[in-house]
Structure formats: C-alpha cells, structure tokens
Amino acid sequence: MQTLPLTQPVEIFLLVLLLILGAPLIFARLKIPNIVGLILSGVIVGPFGFNLLDRDASFTIFGQVGILYLMFVAAIEIDMYHLKKNLRRGVIFGLITFLIPMTVGLFVTRYAFSSGWGTAVLISSMYASHTLISYPIISRFGLANNRGAVIAVCGTIVTVLLSLLALAEVVTVRQTGTFSLVKMLMMFLYMGVYATLVGYLFPKVTRWFFRKINDSVAQFIFILALVCLSSLCAKLMGLEAILGAFYAGLVLNRFIPNRSALMRNIEFVGNAIFIPYFLIGVGMLINVHVVFHGWGVPYVAGVMIATAIGTKWLSAFTAQRIFRLDENERVLMFGLSSGKAAATIAATMIGYEYGLLNEDQMNGAVIMILLCCVVASVVTERSAKRIRLQLTEEELQSDAAKSPGFARQIVAVANPLTSEGLMKLAVFMRNPRNREPITALYVRNNDDRRAVAMGQSAMNNAAKAALSMGIPVDEVERYDLNIVAGVTNTLREKKATDIIIGLHRKSTIIDSFYGFMTEGLIKATDRMIILTRCFIPVDTVRKLVVVVPHNAQYETGFHSWVARIGNLAMQLGCRVVFITYPETEAYLEAFITEEGLTFSRDYRHMESWDDFIILSSQAGEEDLLVVIGARKGSLSYSSDLEMMPGYLGKYFVRHNIVMIYPSQFGK
C-alpha cells in the first residue's frame, strides 16, 4: 500500500515533473501567471496541503541552486552597455527601495506589534529585501535590457546586501548584546577582497577554458561550477550566496552571448528544472491552515502585506519621479521589487530560531511571502505585456523600413575545423530580429572523395552551430566549374546580401595574402564580402579594432557594415575602437545612434597611412582587427589600401582578422 508522503525517488521526481509540466497549463486557464501556479502547486502537494511530497533534501538542494540560477541568469541577460548606462540609477533605486520600507517598517512594527527594536529591525529588513521571483517573465518577453528592468535588477543587489547586513547585525546584537562596528568593517573588507579576486580570476580562467574546450555541454558544466564556487566563497566570507551568483553572472556576462548555444543550454536547464524546483519548494513552506486559527496570524499577515507592498510601490513611484520614467517602467520596477523569497525566508527562519519572531509573526511572514510573490508575478506580467506590445509596434515599423541590419547571409565552408567559427561570426553579426535562414554553402569542382567528405563535414558542423543557436539553415552543396562561379551563382539565386568566407592561408612564398580564389570573388561580385581568420573563439575576443578608410561614409554599403559591426559588438559585449578619419566619425556616430546600436565605442583619428600604422598597434592577439576594404574604382579606394594586404601579412600573422568589402552600387 502506498504511504504518503511519497518516498521513492522515481515517484517523487515523476510528480515534480508533472507539476512543472501541468501547473502552468492548468493555472494559465485561470489567468494566473506560471510562477504563481508553481508556488500554489507546491502549497497543494506539500506538507501543509495534501502531503503528497515532503520538503526533503532534493528540494533543499535544487531549490537553493534554483535561486542561485535565477540571480545568475538575471546578470548574464543584462547587456553590459545598458548596465553601465543605468548603474547610477540602479544604485539610487536600491537605496530608495531599502530606506523607505526600512524606515516605515520600523515605526509600523513598533506600533502595530509592540515589538522591541531588534524585532522591528528584523521585520523591516524583510520588507526592504526582495527577490527577482518574477524575472523569468522579463526574460520570456525579451525585456532584459529594458531601462526599468535593468534599474530594478541593479537595485536588487543593493537592497539585498543592505538587508542582509541589517539581519547580520541584529543577530550579532542578539548573541553578544552589543553592536560591533569592527565586525561590520571587516565584512566590507571581505567583500572588497572577494570582488577583486573573482573579478580578476574568473575571466582569465574562463577565457582559457573556452579556447581549449569548444563543447557546449562542457562549457555549461564549467560555468555552473564557477557560479557555485562564487556563491560558496561569498557564503564563507559572511555574505549571501545569491550575491555571489549575481556577481559571477556580471563577471561572466561577456563570455555568454545571448544567441550562443551556451546561453540556450543555460536557459533551458534553468527553466526546465532548477527554477521550477525552487518555486515549488517555496510553496511547500506555506501553511495556509494557520490563517484559520484565530485572528492573530491574519492580523499580523495583513499588516505585513500592506506595509511590504505599499512601501515597495512608494519606492518605485519615488524612483519614477526622480528618473522621469514612464508609467509602464514604474509598474515593471514595482513588480520586480515586490517579490519575496530567498533573503526574506532566511530572515524569517533566523528570526524564529533566535526568538526575535513569535509564531504568529513567523506564519504571517510566510503568508506575506506568498501574497508578495502573487502580486509581483501578476504586476510584472501585465506591465511586460504592455511594454512588449509597444516595442513590437516599433519593431514592425523598423522592419517595414527594411533596416540594413537584416541580412541574407551565405557562409561558404570547406574546412571542418573553421566552419563552426565562420557560422558563429555570421550569427553574431545578424540583427536579433532577423528571421532569414543562413545558407551553409560548400562548392566543389571535382569528385575527389576526401575533398567531398571534408566539405560535407564542414557544412554539417556549420549547420549544427547555427541550429544550436536557434537559426534556420539551408544546406547547399554545389558542383560548379570553379569555386568563384559556384559562390557567385548561389549569391544570385539566394538573393544574398553577405558572403562570409575564411581568409586564405598562404601556402607558398609566391602566394598572395588573399589567394587567387578570394581575389577573383572580390572582382566577380558587388555584394558584401566578409573574410575572417580567428585563432581564438570569437566569443572570447576582448575588443574590436575597426579600421575605416577615407570617404567610407559615401559608399553604398556603409550602413550595412556598420550594422554588422554593431550587432557583433553587442553580442560579444565588448568595446569597439574605430580608427577613422575625423569627418567619418560624425557619420558613424549618427547611424549608430539612429539604428539604436548600444555598445561602448571610442574613436581614434588618423590623417594618413602613417597614422594607421601607429594606431593599429592597439590591436592585440586577443582582439579582433576589422579592416574595411574597398574595391578598385570605389569612392573610398586609395593607393594606401593597395599596401594593406602586405602590411597585414607581415605584421599581423598571429592576429585575428576580419576583412570587410562593403556592397557596391546598391546591391
């Protein structure tokens, strides 16, 4: 006979999977957000519901990993450009959303509960802290870089840190009877040491590992290990583990492009297992029966809920007025900052353990957590829908204008070792809204079995790379008189705008830098040609150094190649250094701003070829040197460009290079 709660591992895991699968479908019919549905399902099957599941070690482990995962994903989905742009606002909002709930909470708790100062500070820290419980909604609607979302995420770290410091001092006073300034100063010292070590070591180790190991599964395990290590180190230094997970995400952000296979793996595992486990585990803590055991718990819970939600709304309203945000951004900030889970649960358990909270206050806090999660999810989803609809209208207008960022790309491959890198570069250069398939092309002019096998393997590797990043692929194997004819004929048939091909490797002393095939291709077509040679994975590049010739702004394909560079920089999260003529800078900046390309950039001016020779030394072996070329007879062509291949072949043998020949004559 089956006993409850379930004890067999397979039975437990099966029921959890059914909850993860079924709860969102069932609650969606009731217009209840997925997150709330998972929490309520935890209430129903948990110890205080039908007792189908006990909150065993699996929920403790997966739940803890789930909240770490939630904070980590929030950090890696933020564009660092938007983070830096809104960092000051985020810090200010964090202070506001901490001080207002803390101040109001102190007086409300003292008056409503007749509590001592220690209990008042503890409960007020619960009002002040919040968890990004509704962040998966933001991620689902693609609003990670929305101004309100970025400010709220930045503010979360500030307010959680201050709330945990307040909690730590309350516990210290409870244990020792005195306030220790030295202990607090030591904690700040530990924070500085921790941030410095993680910020310095993690990027170096990650860059080394990614260059050695190209397997996305191994990279996922490595990243997850670093997140856990960062969280563990934070915990050992007296901080909260969620702060370590978020900081690890910020440090590793630029190594995980949004459209990479690694990012898809991270999102898949988190949304499928870890985060739902955490939400179900939160629901299992909630005992709804205590509401009906007298008026004590409903009164305490009502005061807590009103104070927590009211002060968070007031904080968002205050920030909106200070930053001059619109109403939807204010509501989004309120939704993200009103959810409570990790830090609040920790404060509740610690407070009850040390006798700072009585039983009614503990149960009231748990009910507050449930209601705040419901409010956060409902409010966030409604505001996210309104913002998404507004953005969709703008995107449709942009699409109708046929933005130059929308490319029809052909990736010509022949070598299995380089085809994946070519495809990744092509994907990173695309506009994120581009739905056009990429053509993986292999052209042959003989029936040599070895060459055919290598070409097909290269094409398959390229196609797998694109599909792993969610990009549709057309695989084309073509037999033609020669490689140039095969590529140009496919360009016409597919009406392609770009051709991405590997840069020729010199095989003899009399061989040219480009090779006869590439030189023939440049002469045979007026479409954009992108030649690349990368010795390191493109997603580990430190910065882009872009060399722009004189009068480049007058070329037909000017806007197109700038859009490609901008998309690449945003995906990689790296800085761009433009080496250009002074009069070209204004055109570059105007188009970048008009197109909404958000990346960090600097300009270095040159007046002659000698200036380029000096300035190009800024490109290191871990950077990507991008040279904008020009065909003979074009407006930006000059005798200096005749010297470029020889100069690159002599002084940049070990460097990562991309050569771009913009499209001509409107094609």
Structure description:
The chain is α/β, with parallel strands linked by helices. The protein has three domains: 57-397, Na+/H+ antiporter like fold (Up-down Bundle), CATH 1.20.1530.20; 404-529, HUPs (Rossmann fold); 534-667, Rossmann fold (3-Layer(aba) Sandwich). Helix content is 63%, strand content 8%. It contains 23 helices and ten strands. Strands 3-2-1-4-5-10-9-6-7-8 form a ten-stranded mixed β-sheet, with helices on both faces. Helix 4 (80-113) runs antiparallel to helix 5 (117-128).
Question: Which features does this protein show?
Answer:
Na+/H+ antiporter like fold; 667 residues; Rossmann fold; ten-stranded mixed sheet; 23 helices; single chain; 10 strands; alpha/beta; elongated
Query: Which structural category fits the helices and strands?
Result: alpha/beta
- The helical percent reads 55-70%
Q: Give the distance, in angstroms, between the N- and C-terminal Cα atoms.
A: 75 Å
> How would the global form be characterised?
elongated
How is the main sheet built? 10 strands, mixed
| Integer tally of domains | 3
Low-confidence stretches: 399-405, 507-511
Overall mean pLDDT:
84
Looking at CATH, which topology of the largest domain would you report? Na+/H+ antiporter like fold
In the CATH scheme, the class of the largest domain would be Mainly Alpha
The total count of strands amounts to 10
* Spatial ordering of strands, largest sheet: 3-2-1-4-5-10-9-6-7-8
Number of helical regions = 23
Strand content: 5-15%
**What is the name of the CATH architecture of the largest domain?**
Up-down Bundle
Radius of gyration: 28 Å
